[in-house]
Design goal:
Elements (H helix, E strand, L loop, with lengths): L2 H10 L21 E4 L3 E7 L5 E8 L2 E4 L5
Antiparallel strand pairs: 1-4, 2-3
């Protein structure tokens, strides 16, 4: 992503700080939002019917997340 594109997105964005354990989207849900992770680490998790968590992917900082897809 170019610096110019980043600055445009930054100006259009609202900053939100998440804490460990916060959810951006519930399992099986969809979101119309796009996230830009500027620091830290996130993970995509599936939870089985028995409550066991399975990590699908780890996401590191400076990655654009399009959560309009179903997780």
């Amino acid at each position: 992503m170019s610096k110019e594109t980043f600055l445009i997105l930054k100006d259009l964005s609202t900053r939100k700080t998440l804490k460990a354990g916060d959810n951006t989207i519930k399992q099986g849900g969809m979101s119309s939002k796009v996230y830009f992770l500027t620091s830290g680490l996130m993970r995509s998790v599936r939870v089985s019917e028995t409550g066991k968590e399975y990590t699908k992917i780890f996401i590191h900082q400076l990655v654009l997340l399009d959560l309009s897809v179903r997780f």
